[in-house]
């Protein structure tokens, strides 16, 4: 990249925002390495959150997994297992951190607004204005089996419900006017008379009549994140979200195309383009030299794609149980079975695997790859690999061209996997003026540079 490149960009002053996505057990986080700590012990959460705070990150982020994924009746260990409830976990972290935002992914399909809005408000108050809510609609039928609802909503209805859910949650959060707590000894009531409104809502999804129990936080109410990549999901984000957690952050052209699509949708929704931040998920692998970084990335891939994992990933593609095959041998000779997601709860099988298998066969044959090697090379890829300076330049290019506003980073090792990002990458970004050198605010909304939440006024009493 030349200097002219950087001078001639739409956002010459862009600064990067980082979150850390603590994923919980899955094959991307190398739990089998001797350096790996517990994925569930409070000490691990604390260590990662405090490292991120030392690195001036905007947020510590957790996903939502209400049901263990299964394949043919067995736990699908390639994917997330062992995730404590996010609001519980983040409340504990609020006590051992001071500035970093705390973002809970909580779905709108199997929760109720009167309950979830209150729990998120609680986190926002306990953390003094650092809560975020990543709104997802979640996969349906298999999660629904946890509840009496089963697979009760199709995709479009899940987003209709999400829309009504969020509108209702906002009404609940706005139920207490700014300054609604008198809180002094010389007044007759703790809340200012007329400052707390009743919320009545009657819609297709929810019917409620409640008096919100909690006042507003230092940032008004939680910051709204969104994750969901369909047209409905993107439109929902453009109408409501402050931040999108996307899966478009590895290739520059893909990231830019996504960001431009979102900006088009923002304009259509009547919102200014700078009203929303885009933070793709990513993994970042750092080495002192390009060669060292590549060697480390190779080690990470081998640890992530163990023989058992390779057989699991290929098994999902083929629709066949391959667990007894030899991962270091050739690809299966059979044709893939096109399965209607039967028996694979939440473990996504590819709709038509034949084309993918044909491509894998051709490339494996041309390169002499084993099954495991093929999965490493052609299976799910993610992330960025490089030196601290090289990565800083690359990320600044992404941000200044408007392709991203930062990243939600998944460490490949818990709890130390964030250390070199904080110790080596962050200083390179700071030196180039593309990353904060201190927190300037105390709330998540301030870290992200978002406009203030609406301020409801007390009614005349
Ligand atoms: C980057 C990303 C992260 C997501 N994380 C979660 C999650 O932690 N829990 C969950 O239930 N769904 C998660 N989802 C899926 C959402 O539930 C999503 O709303 C669902 O797949 C349907 O939306 P879509 O068809 O718009 O993608 C995620 C989606 C994306 C793109």
Strands, total number: 16
Query: What composes the largest sheet?
Result: 9 strands, parallel
- State the fourth-level CATH superfamily of the largest domain: Luciferase-like domain
How many individual helices? 15
Strand arrangement across the biggest beta sheet: 11-10-9-6-5-2-1-16-12
The CATH topology name of the largest domain reads TIM Barrel
Helix content: 25-40%
Rg calc: 23 Å
Can you tell me the residue ranges where pLDDT is under 50 for at least 5 consecutive residues?
Answer: none
Q: Tell me the overall shape.
A: globular
- What number of structural domains do the residues give? 2
Describe this protein's structure.
- The chain is an alpha/beta fold and 461 residues long.
- The chain folds into 2 domains: 334 residues, Luciferase-like domain (TIM Barrel, Alpha-Beta Barrel); 89 residues, no CATH class.
- Helices cover 37% and strands 12% of the residues.
- It contains 15 helices and 16 strands.
- Helix 6 packs parallel to helix 7, helix 7 crosses helix 8 and helix 10 crosses helix 12.
- It is globular and about 80 Å long.
- The mean pLDDT is 91.
- It binds flavin mononucleotide.
- The site of flavin mononucleotide has 19 residues, from strand 5 and helix 7.
SSE blueprint:
Blueprint: H1 3-7, E1 17-22, H2 42-54, E2 59-62, E3 70-71, E4 74-75, H3 86-94, E5 101-107, H4 113-126, E6 131-136, H5 141-144, H6 155-173, E7 199-202, E8 207-210, E9 223-226, H7 231-240, E10 243-244, H8 252-268, E11 277-278, E12 281-282, E13 284-286, H9 290-304, H10 307-318, E14 344-345, H11 353-367, H12 371-378, E15 384-386, H13 388-400, E16 406-409, H14 419-431, H15 444-447
Parallel strand pairs: 1-2, 1-16, 2-5, 5-6, 6-9, 9-10, 10-11, 12-16, 13-15
Antiparallel strand pairs: 3-4, 7-8
The protein binds flavin mononucleotide.
Flavin mononucleotide (FMN) binds at residues 63-65, 105, 107, 136-139, 227-230, 232-233, 245-247, 281.
């Amino acid at each position: 990249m030349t200097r002219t490149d950087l001078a001639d960009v739409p956002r010459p002053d862009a600064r990067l925002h980082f979150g850390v996505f603590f994923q919980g057990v899955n094959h991307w986080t190398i739990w089998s390495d001797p350096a790996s700590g517990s994925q569930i012990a409070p000490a691990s959460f604390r260590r990662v959150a405090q490292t991120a705070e030392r690195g001036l990150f905007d947020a510590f982020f957790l996903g939502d997994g209400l049901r263990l994924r299964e394949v043919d009746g067995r736990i699908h260990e390639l994917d997330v297992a062992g995730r404590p409830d996010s609001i519980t976990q983040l409340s504990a972290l609020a006590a051992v951190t001071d500035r970093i935002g705390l973002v809970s992914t909580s779905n709108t399909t199997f929760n109720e607004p009167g309950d979830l809005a209150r729990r998120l408000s609680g986190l926002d108050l306990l953390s003094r204005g650092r809560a975020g809510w990543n709104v997802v609609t979640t996969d349906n039928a298999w999660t629904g089996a946890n509840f009496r609802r089963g697979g009760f909503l199709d995709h479009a209805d899940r987003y209709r419900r999400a829309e009504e859910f969020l509108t209702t949650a906002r009404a609940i959060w706005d139920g207490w006017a700014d300054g609604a707590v008198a809180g002094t000894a010389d007044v007759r009531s703790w809340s200012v008379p007329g400052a707390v409104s009743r919320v009545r809502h009657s819609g297709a999804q929810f019917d409620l009549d409640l008096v919100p129990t909690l006042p507003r936080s230092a940032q008004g109410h939680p910051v709204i994140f969104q994750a969901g990549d369909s047209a409905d999901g993107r439109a929902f984000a453009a109408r409501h979200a402050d931040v999108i957690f996307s899966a478009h952050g590895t290739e520059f052209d893909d990231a830019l195309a996504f960001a431009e699509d979102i900006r088009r949708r923002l304009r259509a929704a009547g919102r200014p383009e700078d009203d929303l931040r885009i933070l793709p998920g990513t993994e970042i692998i750092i080495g002192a030299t390009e060669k060292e970084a590549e060697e480390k990335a190779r080690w990470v891939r081998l640890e992530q794609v163990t023989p058992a994992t390779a057989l699991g990933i290929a098994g999902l593609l083929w629709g066949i149980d391959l667990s007894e095959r030899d991962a270091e041998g050739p690809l299966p000779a059979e044709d893939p079975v096109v399965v209607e997601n039967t028996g694979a709860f939440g473990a996504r099988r590819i709709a038509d695997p034949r084309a993918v298998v044909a491509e894998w066969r051709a490339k494996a044959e041309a390169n002499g790859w084993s099954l495991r090697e093929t999965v490493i090379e052609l299976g799910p890829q993610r992330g960025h690999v490089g030196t601290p300076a090289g990565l800083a330049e690359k990320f600044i290019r992404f941000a200044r061209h408007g392709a991203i506003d930062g990243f939600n980073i998944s460490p490949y090792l818990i709890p130390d996997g964030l250390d070199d990002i904080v110790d080596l990458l962050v200083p390179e970004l700071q030196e180039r003026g593309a990353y904060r050198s201190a927190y300037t605010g105390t709330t998540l909304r301030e870290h992200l540079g978002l406009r203030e939440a609406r301020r409801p006024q007390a009614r005349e009493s």
